[in-house]
């Protein structure tokens, strides 16, 4: 077998083009074979079929690039939970824009490593421009805001707590019951006290409980608020929380992994009033930004807030190189080798502009409200509440929790729909997290019809004597 060609250099594109034709055909064929939002049959069936169709992964004799690509990509696409399907709506699992995926291909082909300038000359400049641009969106009045690219909201939240620890020592975190699980995990990783968890009686942080906690607790405190919870999409009262943290001299971190991109919509930006008052903000553009994972951001109001992350490894950022003008990139992440995820984000922002981004966000939020309207008008379904962003909770009117769970698993096993689940107010709810801007009213109505039919099937099966 000849030495395989490389993706980079002047010859790289010519080598990639026929391979991409094979990949694109395999993606199409796999989606056709799947025929829905996910493969039917459940875990055992999918596992057996995937292993049977892919064959041995390390054969004695290689199968060649086109056969391997066709086999494995087709199997992956056939067995995918495809967020581009309008009935795949369980999680904050976005269907990436085609242009962002194309940019990601370029990033993979060029393969810059963002840990030293000599591995990423132009990519490091692009990342620096992107991060300061996004930080300025969050902190428009700060003199020199900055941001880091992360793998997502979890890493960004961990970095936020790390920076708070470096500012104050073993800081005590306060969060509400609606906070993302990564906050508690970050305290464990960093050796910090477990968070003090206060109530979120209506899905958002209770300011009275926060006031009591801030008044009672001693030592350095960090309040972590949420702008877009994973269960309901609700947004904490950010301005009120910022008033309380300011009055009690506590730091504030806002996890806006889900809701942060609302900044780009003039219509929905007011939901984030107070965001700029945080000491750090998490943003995640592989959610409401339609990027391939990963595309997380941690923003801070002052560039020097990131100085505690500085680290030296002489082969990457020797003092004399830095003094001579080579940028020091090692403090831009706790990771060493990392991809230029800034490229796909920058391509998307430039291609769509503010108007295009606002349109995507507005139509997605509007779809969630339309789904809520359909549920409200259907006597067989019950809506939990009006959506704040694009998450809609609902359940069949006369179903118990066991039946709700059964409905969800039935739709998964049949390959008909991917819905999430959330336990709110003592009941189990089906969760539709809408992130597909191409979903139509007919798609949404069909999704509800599938739920209703599955409910009738579960009720009939449950009443059948055994």
From TrEMBL:
<keyword id="KW-0808">Transferase</keyword>
<comment type="similarity">
    <text>Belongs to the group II decarboxylase family.</text>
</comment>
<keyword id="KW-0456">Lyase</keyword>
<dbReference type="InterPro" id="IPR015422">
    <property type="entry name" value="PyrdxlP-dep_Trfase_small"/>
</dbReference>
<feature type="region of interest" description="Disordered">
    <location>
        <begin position="34"/>
        <end position="64"/>
    </location>
</feature>
<keyword id="KW-0210">Decarboxylase</keyword>
<keyword id="KW-0663">Pyridoxal phosphate</keyword>
<dbReference type="InterPro" id="IPR015421">
    <property type="entry name" value="PyrdxlP-dep_Trfase_major"/>
</dbReference>
<dbReference type="InterPro" id="IPR002129">
    <property type="entry name" value="PyrdxlP-dep_de-COase"/>
</dbReference>
<dbReference type="InterPro" id="IPR015424">
    <property type="entry name" value="PyrdxlP-dep_Trfase"/>
</dbReference>
<keyword id="KW-0032">Aminotransferase</keyword>
<protein>
    <submittedName>
        <fullName>Aminotransferase class V-fold PLP-dependent enzyme</fullName>
    </submittedName>
</protein>
<dbReference type="GO" id="GO:0008483">
    <property type="term" value="F:transaminase activity"/>
</dbReference>
<dbReference type="Pfam" id="PF00282">
    <property type="entry name" value="Pyridoxal_deC"/>
</dbReference>
């Amino acid at each position: 077998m000849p030495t395989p060609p490389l993706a980079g250099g002047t010859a790289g594109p010519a080598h990639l083009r026929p391979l991409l034709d094979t990949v694109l055909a395999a993606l199409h064929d796999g989606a056709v074979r799947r025929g829905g939002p996910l493969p039917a049959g459940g875990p055992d069936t999918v596992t057996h079929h995937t292993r049977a169709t892919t064959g041995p992964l390390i054969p004695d004799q290689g199968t060649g690039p086109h056969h391997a690509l066709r086999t494995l990509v087709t199997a992956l696409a056939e067995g995918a939970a495809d967020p581009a399907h309008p009935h795949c709506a369980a999680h904050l699992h976005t269907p990436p824009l085609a242009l962002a995926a194309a940019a990601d291909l370029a990033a993979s082909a060029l393969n810059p490593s963002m840990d030293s300038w000599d591995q990423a000359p132009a990519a490091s400049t692009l990342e620096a421009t992107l991060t300061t641009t996004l930080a300025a969106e969050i902190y428009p009045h700060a003199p020199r805001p900055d941001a880091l690219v992360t793998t997502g909201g979890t890493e960004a939240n961990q970095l936020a707590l790390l920076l708070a620890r470096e500012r104050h020592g073993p800081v005590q975190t306060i969060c509400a019951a609606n906070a993302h699980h990564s906050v508690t995990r970050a305290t464990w990783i960093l050796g910090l006290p477990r968070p003090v968890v206060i109530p979120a009686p209506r899905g958002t942080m209770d300011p009275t409980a926060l006031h009591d906690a801030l008044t009672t607790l001693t030592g350095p405190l960090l309040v972590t608020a949420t702008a877009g919870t994973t269960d309901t999409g609700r947004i904490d009262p950010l301005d009120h929380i910022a008033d309380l943290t300011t009055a009690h001299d506590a730091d504030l971190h806002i996890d806006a992994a889900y809701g942060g991109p609302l900044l780009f919509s003039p219509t929905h930006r007011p939901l984030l009033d107070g965001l700029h008052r945080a000491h750090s903000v998490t943003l995640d553009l592989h959610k409401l930004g339609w990027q391939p994972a990963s595309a997380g951001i941690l923003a801070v109001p002052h560039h020097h807030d990131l100085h505690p992350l500085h680290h030296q490894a002489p082969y990457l950022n020797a003092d004399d190189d830095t003094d001579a003008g080579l940028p020091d990139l090692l403090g831009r992440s706790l990771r060493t080798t990392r991809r230029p995820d800034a490229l796909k984000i920058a391509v998307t922002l430039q291609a769509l502009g503010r108007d295009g981004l606002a349109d995507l966000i507005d139509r997605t939020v509007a779809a969630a409200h339309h789904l809520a309207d359909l549920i409200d008008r259907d006597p067989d379904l019950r809506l939990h509440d009006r959506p704040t962003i694009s998450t809609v909770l609902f359940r069949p009117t006369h179903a118990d929790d066991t039946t709700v769970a059964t409905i969800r698993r039935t739709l998964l096993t049949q390959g008909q729909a991917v819905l999430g689940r959330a336990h709110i107010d003592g009941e189990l709810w089906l969760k539709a997290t809408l992130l597909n801007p191409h979903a139509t009213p007919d798609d949404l109505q069909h999704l509800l019809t599938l739920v209703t039919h599955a409910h009738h099937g579960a009720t009939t099966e449950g009443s059948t004597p055994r």
